[in-house]
Every structure is written in C-alpha cells, then in structure tokens.
Amino acid sequence: MKEKKLKGKIALVAGGTRGAGRGIAISLGEEGATVYVTGRTSNGSISEIGRKETIEETAELVNKAGGVGIPIKTDHTNKEQVKALIDKISSENGGRLDILINDVWGGEHLSEWGKKFWEQDLGKALKMFNNCLQSHLITAYYSAPLLLKSDSGLLIEVTDGIDYRYRGNLPYSLVKSSVINLAVCLSEELKSDGVTAISLTPGFLRSEQMLDYFGVQESNWKDAVKKEEHFIASETPTFVGRAVSHLASDPNIFQKTGKPWSSWKLSDEYGFIDSDGSRPHWGNYYKEKFGENLN
To answer: Engineered SS bond to 199: which of 61, 183, 226, 242, CB 3.0-4.6 Å?
Structure first.
C-alpha cells in the first residue's frame, strides 16, 4: 500500500470549489491529509458566474481520494466569517494548521480585456481587489498563528505567473503580481518561526470553466485547439494539485520560502505527471512561441 505522506496533516484550501483549488484539495487528500474546503458555493446554490460546483462536491472527492474532506461555506472577504472558520479549525485540531492554500479568485466576470484601464468599470476593478487580494490577506492574517504551531507550516499563495510583468489587463495584472509579492512579504514575517511562504502558478489551466468555454470535455479537450492554439499546452487542475502535494511532503521545503514557483518547474524537480500521463510544460512552450523565458 502506498505511503500516505500527509496523513495527520491539517490543510485549508481557501477557494476549493473548482479549478486549481479542487485539484489541490484532491491531491492533498490522496496523500491522506485532512482538508478543510471553503468557498461561497455550497449545496443548493450557484456561484456569481453561474457555476454549479460546490465545496461539498470537492470534499467528497477528497474523501474518495483517501483523505478527510470537510466543507465549510466561507466568504473570505468577510473578516467575521474567516475568523469563525479559523476558530473552528483551531478548536478541532489543537490550535494547529499545517497547510494553508490561498486560492480565492472570483475575478473572471470582473476582468475587462481589450480596454485601457480608464475605459474599464472602476467598480469591477475595486471588487476584484477585494475578492482576490484582500481575501488572501484576511485569510493569512487569521491563519498565521495556527501555522506557527505546526512543525512544518506551509502557506501557498496561488496566482498567475512568476513575475511582475504586465498580463494584458491592468487590474488583473496588479492583483496577480500583488499576490506574488504578498507571499514574499509573508515569508519575511514567518521565516523566523520556520514557516514556509511561497507563491505558485499553474500554466494554462484546463479547468471545468475553461472546458465549458471551449465547448469540450476532458475526453476531447484537444478539439479546443482549433479555437485556441495555445490550449495544446494546457494542464488539468490535477497537475498543480500534485505540485502542492509534493511541496507539502518535501522535508526541505523551507529552502523554497519567499520564491515564486510554477507547476511545470516543480514537475521538472519532483517528476510528477498530469492525470493523463503527460507532463505539460508551459514554460518551455511559452519560450518556443514567444521567445521569452518564464523559468
């Protein structure tokens, strides 16, 4: 029987309803972790963007993978709800939290591509900052004292990209690069206590929403390449999920603190593959197509 490298570990995946968050939660479950899955879409409700995936579904997938999934409906922009969540985790686990995955996003419907910043809806931009940046800070704020009690505390900020370059839209770029900087700052605050804080990006994520956008399923996803050529280099949420489970079980993880990491670079290091047996490498693909180095 395969050793469960994270058995006994307590993890919180904030924003675990779908996409990267769901893939991460399942992969942590595969290694035996107890995973608190949080988000705003619970049984009987639909998200702001019309998605039907729920935190309960993700928690059940964690259970099926071999872990313990615990769904708790939480709006991570609400300080009181986040505090109540962390208080619950603390009371149920002796004041300890080993792994925090800050994956809250909710900015799909707020990004206005193809417009200059001053032509965009300022209200949407400010809401994106609240949904996708302030939520991360609030969650880290209340979680930090619990991470300090772990013998190998790990905080991962999930973002898009590994640097501060412009990503084609000012509010989006500012949020995603700020999340990288948040991890850098958190690493400085936490390193004296041995807690690791890093940022992590997937490549072109083949999420449930992206599959629906292109009108394909995982079984025929390559048909979408006719509409978007770069989709050929995409990866499933499992790939970034396995990146996290390998990070969480790495005894030398602290050496990585304060740095931005990518799913493809970690695959090079740890040797994990995607759910279909492939090893997608967005960094190599990007360099071949655009002549720029993302590694």
So the answer is: 183
Backbone dihedral region for residue 99 (phi beyond 0: left; psi -120 to 50: alpha; all else: beta): beta
What spatial distance separates the first Cα and last Cα of the chain, rounded to whole Å? 36
Query: Could you report the per-residue pLDDT of 90-120, keeping only the tens digit for each?
Result: 999 999 999 999 999 988 889 999 999 999 9
The domain tally of the chain equals 1
3-state secondary structure of 276: coil
Answer whether residue 177 is part of any domain: yes
Answer yes or no: is 57 within a domain.
yes
Asked whether the beta carbons of 92 and 146 are under 8 A apart, the reply is: no
- Helices 282-290, 263-270: axis angle to 10 degrees equals 120
Residues of the chain with pLDDT under 50: none
Beta bridge partners of 156: 101, 198
CATH of the domain at 183: 3.40.50.720
| 278: its two tokens | 């492939």
- Contact yes or no for 21/12 (Cβ under 8 A): no
In a domain, residue 185? The reply is: yes
